[in-house]
Amino acid sequence: MAEVITMPRLSDTMTEGVVATWLKKVGDKISEGDILAEIETDKATMEFESFHSGTLLYIGLEEGEAAPVDSLLAIIGNEGEDISALINGVSVEKSSEKEDVKSEVEVVAKNDSNQEVSIPKDVKIVTMPRLSDTMTEGTVATWIKKVGDKVEEGDILAEIETDKATMEFESFQSGTLLYIGINEGESAPVDSILAIVGPEGTNVDGLVASVKAGKNPLEEREIQVERKQESVQEKVIETMPQTVTVSENTVTGRVFVSPLARKIATDKGVNLADVSGTGENGRIVKRDVENYVPSVKVPSVVSNTNVSSVKTFAPAGEVNIEEVKNSQMRKTIARRLAESKFTAPHYYLTIEISMDEAMASRKIINTLPDTKVSFNDMVVKACAMALKKHPQVNTQWKDDVTVINHHVNIGVAVAVEDGLVVPVLPFTDQMSLTQIGEKVKELAVKAKTKKLQPAEMDGSTFTVSNLGMFGIQSFTSIINQPNSAILSVGAIEEKPVVKNGQIVVGNTMTVTLACDHRTVDGATGAQFLQTLRSYIENPVTMLA
To answer: Each residue of 330-343: pLDDT tens digit?
Structure first.
């Protein structure tokens, strides 16, 4: 029997995925565990394996196409099996859903008008998240927040037990926890009502009663109707020639646009008058706004015959721009770094370190068989040991508490083709120089070949970013939250230095510590750098 494969949720924040590469093609034999495709998420490009055996009968998304989680990705079944009904069933089912949902909304409006419950202003319904690609239900292991507690975006609401692990679930909204829908120890399917967050004092009794009765608020229902309608339109448009219809009524000047498309256009700053609609009767839908590319208007040159006959030089050229679609990783980098820069009050401390002893020690260490230690490995080890002496730098800020980490997990920034990832070295202080070197190389290779797993990028307490290999003398970095600090490492320079009153040639390296002033005071950051310098300038002390 044929199995429908849907777009998996490969990270806790993933809402849509892009098929980077298909590793199998229609007609190929598939065994359970075979890699079907590489899926680009908001964090990384990851391999997606098949949980079924058979023949790949149908591919629903081409390479480079994006689709929401749970969209049709592929169909696997027996060779020669007729799946036309299954494929057509998607369109037929959605077409009937379009009719049924429309009538459903009308019935609610007419027959139950006295019981309609809308979501109060600024109130957000939090649902059971899909925290793994195979998760169908979750169990609330522990509630970190209770009803009445203040909640900030990024706060941990609860610990959710999935089919693979128990994971922390953070809030994407700020407000007050008004209602808990699933108690500790209780299980519920994905997308069930988990909690309600909103302004303090908001009356959500009607909303809670509606939830307990198994009803969805009218506002959520309308969004579902629209998404189903647009999904049906997309399927219909794929099977018939597309004609571009101007969606503006030339008589009234009205623009026909769906509410979801209007909201996306507002968020992106797109003028709907410039967008051509491909929906029913030229209606602008979500797809039109997302695919809209503004045209470049080249200003015309107006000549003036009354101007002096002396001609000024006017360079002739053509305006040439290119727009590249942002990858999920690039979007996440932009969002997280902007959040860090504009929420954490950064300040910077810079120090110069003598590298003569470090260079001599490294040369000796690397003479050992099968041993290769880099200067970056020495910096990471020194940071780990300095953090044990200055735990205030190894902290995380929360509104009500400061979390002091007594374990040391250092993240090492690695540049990849699509951006930047930060694989983590767990319990770095317990690792030797050679172990650090081997682990960093292993994680760097995984990062560059897109094999890095989300678990290998979680849990850092401090970050090291090194641009010395590019000849950069010094630079400042943006803190990788929830860390409180990040160390920027520059190149080793040979230059004149003063030793014992004499000017001699020495090797120095400049490092800059970026600190979050909410958790790390200036004196604390300075003391950390002093300890770091003592370790690097005297590497033998790191072996004690």
So the answer is: 888 888 899 999 99
Q: Is residue 408 domain-shared with residue 537, that is, in the same domain?
A: yes
Per DSSP, 144 falls in state S
Q: What is the pLDDT of residue 349?
A: 97
Cβ neighbourhood burial of 239 (10 Å; 0-12, 13-18, 19+): exposed
Q: pLDDT for 347-379, tens place per residue?
A: 999 999 999 999 999 999 999 888 899 999 999
**pLDDT tens per residue across span 284-294:** 888 888 888 87
Identify any residues that bridge with 513 across adjacent strands, giving them in sequence order.
349, 487
Helix (H) or strand (E) holding 139: strand 137-143
Contacts of 306 (CB under 8 A, 6+ apart): none
| pLDDT value of position 242 | 43
| Cβ within 8 Å of residue 498, ≥6 positions away | 504
Q: What is the rounded average pLDDT of the residues 424-450?
A: 92
Asked if residue 482 and residue 417 are part of one domain, the reply reads yes
Residues 419 and 478 both lie in one domain: yes
Residue 493, domain extent: 336-542
Examine the domain organization and report whether 128 and 83 are in the same domain: no
Residue 107 lies in a domain: no
Across 248-262, average pLDDT: 62
Among 173, 201, 229, which residue terminates a domain? 201
Residue 177: give its domain's CATH number. Answer: 2.40.50.100
Integer CA distances (angstroms), 408 to 346, 465, 516, in order: 22, 16, 18
Assign residue 480 the CATH number of its domain.
Answer: 3.30.559.10
Q: How far is Cα 468 from Cα 510, in angstroms, rounded to an integer? A: 9
Per-residue H/E/C for 18-47: EEEEECCCCCCEECCCCEEEEEECCCCEEE
Active-site residue set: 517, 521
Average pLDDT of the residues of the chain: 82
Number of domains in the chain: 3
Residue 326 is assigned to a structural domain of this protein: no
Q: Which SS3 state, helix, strand or coil, does residue 127 take?
A: strand
SS3 call for 505: strand
| 386: number of Cβ within 10 Å | 25
Assess if residue 176 is contained within a domain: yes
Of 201, 220, 254, the residue that ends a domain is 201
pTM, entire model: 0.50
Mean pLDDT of 187-213: 84
